């Protein structure tokens, strides 16, 4: 059997690495893929992580190659140890993402390649001699973060290496915009559209009083990405005043947002909620959302 080789990423690997990334994205979110340029850019910096990205002191990407094919890859980050870095990240190292082919009849040694790559990652961490070691699965695609439940082969690699889930679990929900309610009059209530913290904000008002709002981010499919289907947007924030609970205001706000999304040519809307928050989950499922997947955030290396 040809020997496995773990080595630094080379630019000539870009197409195979992108294919490997996109196979993992496809198992999580329908109709989304990323371009070669997106992957290459992400190896250099993460512009969306405007808080944590400036804290990174070193980045490295490793691949496992066999029979001329890239069968596994990992992107590692080392964070600075100075006082400008947030406490949780200070003097930390992390696997930003790890992808590998699952075992198959035509690739029976996939686990061997993944484990060899993981051992090389841990050896790099040992050389860095950082305070703590983290792991994630944050590929450069919308909705892919934490460790999605759709990747049991990656979970197995992490757990064999001594990583443990110590954080929260989030539920990712999705709906067709066409399935959201149509906007209807609500006596005494108007809607105001402004720029919010996480996208376009729709605020329900009675006079000058704000009753609640929803924010929609329509920038998930940035120009450098190449979705295989129509547009995708997500709910950045959804909030109503406690006195409005149970009045249907949340669904009314979603209807206002849906009308805007149809004008934008967006056909799917996603939302994120913490597992166990049954009130929020019931609200969204009542509006037509269904569970897309669950993802486990916060993995830490705790061998033994």
Account of the protein in words:
The chain has 304 residues and is an alpha+beta fold. 25% of the residues lie in helices and 34% in strands. The chain contains six helices and 15 strands. The strands form two sheets. Strands 6-14-8-13-12-11-10-9 form an eight-stranded mixed β-sheet. Helix 3 crosses helix 4. The longest helix has 19 residues. It is elongated, with a radius of gyration of 21 Å.
Question: What's the total helix number?
Answer: 6
Written as H for each helix and E for each strand, in order along the chain, the element string is EHHEEEHEEHEEEEEEHEHEE
Q: Please give the radius of gyration in angstroms.
A: 21 Å
Shape: elongated
Biggest sheet character: 8 strands, mixed
Count of β-strands = 15
Compose a concise summary of this entry:
The chain has 304 residues and is α+β, with helices and mostly antiparallel strands.
Topology:
Elements: E1 5-8, H1 14-26, H2 36-44, E2 56-66, E3 69-79, E4 92-100, H3 110-128, E5 132-135, E6 147-148, H4 152-160, E7 163-165, E8 169-176, E9 190-195, E10 200-206, E11 209-217, E12 231-240, H5 249-264, E13 266-274, H6 278-286, E14 290-296, E15 299-301
Parallel strand pairs: 4-5, 12-13
Antiparallel strand pairs: 1-2, 2-3, 3-4, 5-15, 6-14, 7-15, 8-13, 8-14, 9-10, 10-11, 11-12
Helix pairs in contact: 3-4
């Amino acid at each position: 059997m040809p020997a496995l080789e773990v080595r630094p990423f080379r630019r000539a690997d870009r197409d195979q690495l992108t294919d490997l990334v996109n196979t993992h994205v496809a198992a999580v979110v329908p109709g989304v893929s990323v371009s070669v340029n997106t992957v290459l850019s992400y190896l250099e910096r993460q512009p969306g992580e405007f808080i944590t990205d400036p804290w990174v002191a070193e980045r490295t990407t490793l691949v496992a190659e066999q029979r001329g094919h890239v069968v596994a890859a990992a992107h590692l980050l080392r964070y600075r140890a100075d006082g400008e870095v947030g406490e949780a990240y200070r003097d930390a190292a992390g696997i930003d993402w790890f992808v590998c082919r699952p075992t198959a009849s035509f690739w029976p040694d996939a686990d061997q390649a993944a484990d060899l790559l993981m051992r090389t990652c841990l050896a790099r961490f040992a050389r860095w001699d950082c305070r703590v070691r983290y792991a994630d699965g944050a590929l450069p695609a919308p909705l892919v973060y934490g460790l999605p439940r759709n990747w049991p082969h990656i979970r197995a690699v992490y757990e064999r290496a001594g990583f443990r889930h110590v954080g929260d679990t989030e539920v990712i929900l999705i709906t067709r915009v066409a399935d959201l309610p149509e906007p209807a009059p609500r006596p005494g209530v108007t809607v105001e559209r402004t720029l919010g913290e996480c996208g376009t904000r729709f605020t329900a008002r009675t006079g000058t009083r704000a009753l609640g709002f929803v924010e929609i981010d329509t920038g998930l499919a940035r120009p450098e990405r190449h979705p295989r289907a129509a547009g995708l947007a997500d709910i950045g924030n959804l909030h109503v005043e406690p006195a409005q609970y149970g009045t249907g205001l949340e669904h009314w706000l979603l209807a206002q947002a849906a009308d805007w999304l149809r004008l934008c040519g967006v056909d799917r809307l996603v939302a994120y909620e913490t597992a166990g928050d049954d009130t929020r989950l019931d609200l969204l499922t009542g509006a037509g959302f269904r569970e897309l997947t669950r993802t486990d955030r916060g993995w830490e290396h705790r061998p033994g």
